[in-house]
Amino acid sequence: MIRVKLPTVGICALLGVTTFAGTAPASLAQSSVLVAQATAETFYTQSLDKIRKERYTEAMADLNQAIALKADYAAAYASRGYVRSVTGDQAGAITDLDRAIELDPKNAVAYANRGNAHYALGNAQAAMQDFDQAISLDASYAPAYVNRAYLRAAQGDAAGAMADVDRAIQLQPNDAAAYVNRGYLKAGKDDRTGALEDFNQAIKLKSNYAEAYLNRGTVYQSMGDLQAAQQDFDRAISLKANYTTAYYNRGLVYQDLGLLQDAQQDFDQVIQLIPSQANAYLHRGQVRAGLGDANGALADYTQVLRLQPNEAKAYQYRAAVRLVNGDKSGALADYDQALQLNPENINTYQSRAKLRLELGDTAGALTDYTQAISLNPKDARTFSDRGDTRLKLGDTQGAIADYSQAILLNPRSADAYYNRGMIYTQLGDYQSAKTDLKKASDLYLENGNGDGYRNVLSQMNQMPR
């Protein structure tokens, strides 16, 4: 099964932390307090509770009021920047956090959150500068280390990312997110045991942590423990109803378990939630093909190509479905396009070679098999197939050479012994023919191929004594 992952499928990306660190203002002095200031701080205090409850629209309204009443309110700008960031307005978040830092240049949280916003907009350099500054201002601020680890991991600095996450855990040993991040890094280094330990710890600390279940399930999935993976994905979905990554990964598990209808339901859910997710269409196409729904599979692969016109696998898979529908010319065009996009796909060369033989293009098939062999010179089946093709072209010596190589690579290839034996028969080399055909009959019998065994015996009985 060819695996195609969503951008956040598999071991999910490190969890960048946009930190909310708003605190209620100190008690107001009982005398000479301006009414406007009191009102501004009242709005700000109200916003904090709403942010904690993720009532961001209401919190934004309160923060707007606070800033309107107190234009130099650094904490309000910082909190509004946080709200804008978590609701997707990264540019607005940066504007607010710039102002917060201007008013309070030692606010480590503001730097960390601005770094996240910069990273979300693709400005990794500015993000790194902000994370570094946050840590410089407060070396004990764990979320800044996690944020910097996120960026370092994305830049390929796994060692630096691991050091940052280790430090974050040292500072906050009860931070479940930090354990998930470290588990992600360990899994990336193929330390699955260590990854599972971290994910288990994250779940111990936070039993309703959907991301921890997702990541642990993905490790189980990579280890081949599909039942454990399914259970974790089930749990992640129960905690986070619209968790597309969990639906997608569970769909892959169902696909591997042969539960195709269940797999289709999960891929349906991913597509419903994210209609532009090409990989979900790709796998749903495979599932539909497996269920005998050729037209549905064709529609899915076509949709993949609308979304990702350079997806070679979609052309490859659509070609196979077109063959089921009898559309050989369409299949050939798809194989051609697939190889143009990915000229090193052995399976596509093999498939196109077989189709070319059906279309009478024997020379073209020979070219495809030769290319496939150049990419993988240890594939006995391709040598045997090229031997068949050379035989069709009248190249008996070339066919013998290919069958011989197939036998060298796979000494239990009954077909290769049989085909080489039949060529020897045609050439009048009956001793070599009998040796090969006897070996073929033994292998067919061992493999339970009664028809092949009886056919060989019939051929041998027709040979001169």
Describe this structure in words.
This protein is mainly α. Among the domains are: 15-23 and 31-175, Serine Threonine Protein Phosphatase 5, Tetratricopeptide repeat, CATH 1.25.40.10; 412-465, no CATH class. The chain has 25 helices and no strands. The chain has helices at 35-52, 56-69, 74-86, 90-103, 108-120, 124-137, 142-154, 158-171, 176-188, 192-205, 210-222, 226-239, 244-257, 260-273, 278-290, 294-307, 312-324, 328-341, 346-358, 362-375, 380-392, 396-409, 414-426, 430-446, 450-461. α18 packs antiparallel against α19. The radius of gyration is 32 Å and the shape is elongated.
Task: Give the secondary structure arrangement, pairings included.
Elements: H1 35-52, H2 56-69, H3 74-86, H4 90-103, H5 108-120, H6 124-137, H7 142-154, H8 158-171, H9 176-188, H10 192-205, H11 210-222, H12 226-239, H13 244-257, H14 260-273, H15 278-290, H16 294-307, H17 312-324, H18 328-341, H19 346-358, H20 362-375, H21 380-392, H22 396-409, H23 414-426, H24 430-446, H25 450-461
Helix pairs in contact: 1-2, 2-3, 3-4, 3-5, 4-5, 5-6, 5-7, 6-7, 7-8, 8-9, 9-10, 9-11, 10-11, 11-12, 12-13, 13-14, 14-15, 15-16, 15-17, 16-17, 17-18, 18-19, 19-20, 20-21, 21-22, 22-23, 23-24, 24-25
